[in-house]
Amino acid sequence: MSSTPRVLIILFAALAAAFSASAGATGKTQKSKSTQATANTAAAKKAAGSRGKKAQASRGQKVSIHARNVVIAAPVVIPVADPRAVSHDAAGIAREFDRWLDGIEASSDISGLAAAIVKDDKVLLERGVGFANWSTREHVSGDTVFRLASLSKAFATAMAGLLVEDGRLHWDTKIAGVLPTFTLNDVTGAQKLTVSDILSHRVGLPHNTYDNLLEQDEPYELLVDRLKEVPLACPVGDCYGYQNIAFSLIGDVTYATTGDFYYHQVEKRIFHPLQMDTATYGRDALEGSKSWARPHRRAGGGWVPFTPNESYYRVAPAAGVNASIRDMEQWLIAQMGGRPNVMSPALLSELHTPLVETTRETRASLWRRGRLNDAKYALGWRIYDYAGETLVFHAGAVQGYRAMIAFLPKYRFGAVMLWNCESGLPAGLMPMLLDRYLGLPEVNWAGIDSATTSDVGGAD
């Protein structure tokens, strides 16, 4: 382990000890509290001084992140990003991120990963790490295609937005008016359900309704019809309940309003104009790609590829997209306003406007607890208050694949990561990158955020 993560561990272990001592001191004398606090403060100061010296010495070195057995308490107080501390050297931060990837590449913590960092309309980093196929030692490249899982949802909402701009739909178009046979357990409520409701997970259904049956190979069409059997968790439009099956009704709505298949419309209106040349829908297209990342599972000290699971491809709007990191660079540029000819500023504003509270997201992982003041869902995107700055975010997971995208719209700075195994390690790199760019206190989130989170499961 390099000096920077080691010293960070010392510092935050000291802070965790101080917090634990304070929380457990109820009933003790004031004198014992003061003594313990003094000792902990001294330890923290000593660690902080060491951190400052060692961090400077470690610049330019490879960073190896292997601290997942260490439990570090999240900061008690969420820091506030100071605009004056935001980096003016995004390229330098991208180079540092590249060194973090060097450390990961030297380990066996992942089978393969592709990452990109974008500032404004410029790609600062494009990097493949590890193997698309561990057995054949085929390396991950910029054109290696991965499954996007729930990052697919933003393509569905963008497609809906383009139909709204065409005048074929409205965000408040009633689903029942387009799909007359569709209903819910609350028939009256079903008549009120809108396009905006399904795309922001405000259907009123319990979280992930019938995903378990989808994973057992039940057909999408049957599961959509069976939604009418499920008692609602709240009235339509009143609360958040993450969905994959109900969300995918937008595919049926697209066909009903255009007479064309949903995925054809996305290819024509989004993939092709953005030059996302290797982006596709479906398992056959994935396996037909010139280079594609096999899903992997752990086997001893390495990884073993296996056959991709078909289940979530059946809900294409929710989880059906395949794309390379090079494709996703173009998508990120467009989402940050760099392709107004394809996605207008007005459309982006609609897509990124928060619509419903998702409070439990703020507690879903250590980095979220340490950085998020607020969490909401917009249209296919999570909108976080990240240490006082707006962060547009989504993560996704299907069997053998993980994906994560995030950007700071104010600064037009963002990143994408795609990986072909169920390791949680890369998830911690994203907040580390954001912290470094915003000038926030350094925390080795990649060393501690290895457990599954709310964004890692099913096709979330």
What would you say this structure looks like, in words?
The protein is of the alpha+beta class. The chain folds into 2 domains: 56 residues; 375 residues, Beta-lactamase (3-Layer(aba) Sandwich), CATH 3.40.710.10. It is 37% helix and 17% strand. The protein is built from 18 helices and 14 strands. The strands form 3 sheets. It has a 9-stranded antiparallel beta sheet, with helices on both faces. Strands 4-8-5 form a 3-stranded antiparallel beta sheet. Strands 6-7 form a two-stranded antiparallel ribbon. β6 and β7 form a beta hairpin. It is globular and about 55 Å long. Pfam families: Beta-lactamase (PF00144). One of its GO terms (molecular function) is hydrolase activity.
List the main descriptive attributes of the protein structure presented here.
disordered N terminus, AmpC-like, Beta-lactamase, 2 domains, three-stranded antiparallel β-sheet, 37% helix, 17% strand, signal, alpha+beta, 18 helices, nine-stranded antiparallel β-sheet, single chain, globular, 460 residues, disordered C terminus, Serine hydrolase domain-containing protein
